[in-house]
Structures
1.
Amino acid sequence: MRRRVVARYCCLALILLVAACAVFWVRYRSPLYQSSVTVAFVTKTNHFQGEVYDHFTDNHIYMALATARYFDNPGTKQRLRAMGGTALFQFQVAHWGNEELPVYGQPYANLQALSDDPDEAKVTLDLALKLLDKKLENLQTSAGANGRVMIKWEPLGDVIGPVRQSLQRGRSMAGIALMVLLASVAVAFATRDRGADQHRPQPGRPTRATAGPPRRSRPPRVGAGTTI
């Protein structure tokens, strides 16, 4: 009994020590940094009042979707990595609806690069924008565009980041807390007192009385009322 209690407390102390080390690592040693930018696919046309931007045509939306498929291609991911963009990269076209049935109605896209190295996240995003320039030009020149009226991308605001991600840290803390809880329950179950469970009467089964010495039957009594 005493050994089980000592083993239980030793295991719980070890679990808490490992959890503390994990919290320290997530909080101070393994942050993630994100660089992102939102772009719009536009066409610049010369007008007597200056440049006019055309934002909401089907051609611009199709161009955003075509570039999204291009960046989702494994060959493009390998090319980006060979150029030095080793961070995790995502190209997402703006839509409403849900993930199973998205509805695309605007030619906007968000580019994100995520890494534990802030410089790596920034470099990956810059290289992805260069690939975006080349892809837009190749798609249109191969279709016969002459270069005077072409769809291009423009950033909506400045490039954000590299920014440290606090959401990743919160999820990690929740995961560590859940693992500690499950491990503690497992340790308590593994080190429970099995002897008490064996001697405990089970419901639905009658208890057997303690066996005693055999009882002898008494001989029949012969009295006055007995007929011979």
2.
Amino acid sequence: MGQAEFAQFASREGWWYAGSQEHEWFGSAHTWDTVEGLVVRFYPGGPIPVPFAEVSADEPEMCQRAMADAEAAAVRAFPCFSVADCLDLARSSGGEATIRALNGLAAVVPDRYSRAVGEVVIPALFAPESTVRSAALRVVGMAAWPEFVRPLAAAALTEPDEEAARLARDIVAGLSGADVLTFLVRPSADEEPMTGTGHRSDDDARPATGQGRRSRKPGSAQELFIWTP
């Protein structure tokens, strides 16, 4: 899906074009405003190489219905995919399909730790193919989950590509406040979240609807994400 196709869809929905904006994480976004007070951004693919759309609102609690309607309209118009779809594709495929699934997860990864996502992403950090490892690293960086730090630190020590290894070390340092070796020799005080501990242990069946992402835009309103591989 390209920008022109999405622009035609936006025009049919009655949204008006507000120009292009730069996002800290996702690069350039074409932006539309709606009469209900929503902001719709379309990312054609950049740091995360899948096109996807984001719907946000300054007053999300007042705009939930409009946000849901915008999401539903996009789902009807385009082949959109959820976290669960990404996981199914990653589990059942290989090669380029796995990379596309991981890139999709990077765009829609839940706010909080999901065991199902971890079971797909962590092994991919150690995959034989460098392109799969890079895609998994992209998910880890966007998730910013503490539960990913220990396997990521181990991956940083075995990663043969120096650029990828440096990125892994930087993510570990950013999340743990320590370099890789220092982190790995620490006693592990963190247990994996389990059902009933107060953490969501498995969000894979839920789309990232209405979730404000600190890693995407600090202090932002609630947002929903739609992506197409």
3.
Amino acid sequence: MAYRVCFVCTGNICRSPMAESVFRARVAEAGLDGLVEVDSAGTGGWHEGDPADPRTVSVLEEHGYGGGHTARQFQPSWFTRLDLVIALDSGHLRALRRLAPSPEDAAKVRLLRSYDPAAGDDFDVPDPYYGGRDGFEECLEMVEAASTGLLSEVRKQVEGQAA
């Protein structure tokens, strides 16, 4: 059975699709394809059915990542099939924990930057939507930095399932 990770931001067109794409690439590089499933969603449904923001897509593509994506809204019923729900900022963390049907499900929700030792005590990935392209570049840097630690944690969980 695959280990399932879902990245969540507000509208699922900027930060969470970026995190999904980067982490999916890290999973593939680590040879964990088929053992780890990666997707993303938004806390709200404003952009449901839309592609990722063009700035997200261009930054991802320029750095060698795939950009195919369709936005969707996170549903509380998904907790039962997910192993880890990764929030991109503390507002998402609170919203997701409120949606969780049980304390065990709430415990599945973590902040992405908590996996980056260099993040200090600032675990939020700023929303680049209303800014310029540099915000999308900064978002990618933060996502990439945290993905290393997240991959290490997921690998431990996957290897623990196989034992």
